[in-house]
From TrEMBL:
Protein known as: Sortase family protein
Organism: Kocuria dechangensis
Alphabetized UniProt keyword annotations: Hydrolase
CDD domains in alphabetical order: Sortase_F
Any GO molecular function: hydrolase activity
InterPro entries, alphabetized: Sortase, Sortase_dom-sf, Sortase_F
Amino acid sequence: MLREDGSTAVFAVERGEQYAKDAFPTSAVYGNTAGAELRLITCDGYDPATGLFDDNYVVYAKLVA
């Protein structure tokens, strides 16, 4: 990500977590953080019987530079 000063923001992935849609930790995923962080939220847990995704997968990343 290019910053206003021309430098590049670099984020490092810390972890990924799978959550059931009915137990999604909204505050933990969308809440405030002490520093710059990113969250990638996508679908997971595909059920071919229903054609639906039962879960979400969240990737957590923090600013390193």
